[in-house]
Amino acid sequence: MTEPDYVIQTRTAYDTVADSYAEAHRDALDANPWDRAMLGTFAELVGRSGPVGDLGCGPGRVTGHLASLGLDVFGVDLSPGMVEVARRAHPDLRFEVGSLNALALDDGCLAGALAWYSLIHTPPELLAPVVTELARVLAPGGRLLAAFQVGDERRRITQGYGREVSFDAYRLPLDFVAGLCTAAGLTMEARLVREPEPPHEKTPQAYLLARKPS
């Protein structure tokens, strides 16, 4: 099956910047109480009820944080370069290469799924099947936490972390993503939008928490 261009471009870009990206974001959670609060709430709600997938895990920094909160967590990422970095940084955790479009996971196998800024590289018109895939792998009662930049635009990224890259990122309307979750059979539990924190953030940031009905 031929992969879409946006998938190939995204993988290539993150392979290119894997090491520098990991270094730049290594301590990002330490400086962001909002992120820690949402991840902590997610961890408390999921608890020890089953495995958790950090889906689009990048270099594994959030995966490691969730593990420190007591979750049985593993990571999946499109970029082999990112997975290699994650395995080096967290040798005690499991990381696999995979795509949100077709997760190599059984139906209903996860107590929790994290989509931490991993929806933003899929064109909005193609996002519905991705969210449906996230819902598919959740067990009844399982929870999805998604984070993304709020807006309604496509950005072409040509420079990142000191390297030349070429891929797209999308800012997404809050109600649009919430609607996709509802259409996939999930029940919305919470939504939060916070103002950007300069200099690195230029748009509001959103967190959505949804639950698969029991």
Automatic annotation (TrEMBL):
<dbReference type="GO" id="GO:0032259">
    <property type="term" value="P:methylation"/>
</dbReference>
<dbReference type="Pfam" id="PF13649">
    <property type="entry name" value="Methyltransf_25"/>
</dbReference>
<keyword id="KW-0489">Methyltransferase</keyword>
<dbReference type="InterPro" id="IPR041698">
    <property type="entry name" value="Methyltransf_25"/>
</dbReference>
<keyword id="KW-0808">Transferase</keyword>
<feature type="domain" description="Methyltransferase">
    <location>
        <begin position="54"/>
        <end position="142"/>
    </location>
</feature>
<dbReference type="InterPro" id="IPR050508">
    <property type="entry name" value="Methyltransf_Superfamily"/>
</dbReference>
<dbReference type="InterPro" id="IPR029063">
    <property type="entry name" value="SAM-dependent_MTases_sf"/>
</dbReference>
<protein>
    <submittedName>
        <fullName>Methyltransferase domain-containing protein</fullName>
    </submittedName>
</protein>
<dbReference type="GO" id="GO:0008168">
    <property type="term" value="F:methyltransferase activity"/>
</dbReference>
